[in-house]
Every structure is written in structure tokens, then in C-alpha cells.
Amino acid sequence: MKRAARSASRLALLAICLATFAFAQEKGAEGEGGALQLWKWVNFLLLAGAIGYVIAKQAPAFFTARTEQIGKDMAEAQAERKAAEQKAAEVDRRLANLEKEVASLRAEAQQQAAVETERMIQHTAAELAKIQSHAEQEIVSAGKAARLELKRHAAELAIGLAEQKIRARMTPDTQDALVQGFVRDLK
């Protein structure tokens, strides 16, 4: 590559020199102003040759480095494009599965709600059974207490009525007979 660049720069320098001399020959016929013009062209050719030499010396390294940098940038861009495509494919896959996931979450939530509802129904039924059992026990207990109270009250009434009947029948003669019978039973 360096040889091709050197050959091209040498050919360009030779072409410029030949063109300058040919131009100088035409102008040389004009006189003394032509010699001054010739030195200007020679000076120009030296400057152009020096610039061409510097460019020929530095350009290959510059263009090689630039080519390598462009190659690296293209490789990085390709890698980034592949990574972006993979991310886009992953996002597309997730979006495609999103509806399935949402449906699955809804089904799971409905199932959990049904299980929770059944648990609450069973818990409520158990609580109602406890309350009913407790109420029945209280009713039985209250019934027993009422029957006992009724028996006690009936006994009190019966005693009171018997007492009234006995007092009504009790005369002083009956009292004496009872006392004498009691004393005899004691002996």
C-alpha cells in the first residue's frame, strides 16, 4: 500500500514538473517577467512537493487508523444492534406472554377468592353452630331454672295453703291432743 502511494505521489510530482516547464517555456518567450514567473512556479512546485511528501508520508497511517476505527465502530454498532434486537425480541416475547400471565393471575385470584369464600362459609357455619348450641344450652338452663323456681314457688304456695288449712282447722282442743300425742311418742 505504501509503494502504491509513493508511486502515485512521484507520478503526480513528475506531471506537475513537466507541466510547469512546459508553461515556463511558453512564458519564457515573453521576456524577463517570464524568469520571475518561472521561479514562482518552481517555488510553488517545491512547496506542493513538500506538502505532497508530507501527505504521502502521513496519509497512509491516518487512513489505516481511520479505517480500523471505522471497522471497530461498525463492529460495535453491529453488536449493539444485535443486543437491541435481542432486547426487542425479549420485550415482544414478554408482551406476547403478558396476556397469558394476566389471564393466569386472574384465574389464580379467582381460585383463591373461591377458596377464601368457602373457608369463610365454613367458618360462619361453625360459628353459627356454636351460637345455636350455646343458645340451646342457655334455653335448657333457663328452662331448668324456671322449673326449679316454679317448683319452689308451688311448694311455697302449697305450704302456705296447707298452713292456712291447718290453722283454720286448728282449735285449742286439737292442739292439746297433738301435743299429748307428741309427748307420748317421745316416751
Please provide a brief summary of the model.
By secondary structure, the protein is mostly helical. It contains three helices and no strands. It has one domain.
Description:
With 187 residues, this protein is an all-alpha fold. The protein has helices at 2-28, 32-169, 172-186. The protein is rod-shaped. The model has no long low-confidence stretch (mean pLDDT 83).
SSE topology sketch:
Layout: H1 2-28, H2 32-169, H3 172-186
Helix pairs in contact: 1-2
Low-confidence stretches: none
Question: What is the C-alpha radius of gyration, as a whole number of Å?
Answer: 66 Å
Count of spatially separate domains: 1
Tally of contiguous helical segments: 3
Would you tell me the structural class of the helices and strands?
mainly alpha
- Could you state the oligomeric state of the chains shown? single chain
The percent of residues in helical segments reads over 70%
Inertia-based shape: rod-shaped
Order of helices and strands: HHH
Distance between the termini: 161 Å
Largest sheet: none
Report the count of strand segments: 0
Q: Give the integer mean of the pLDDT values.
A: 83
Approximately how much beta-strand content do the residues carry? Answer: under 5%
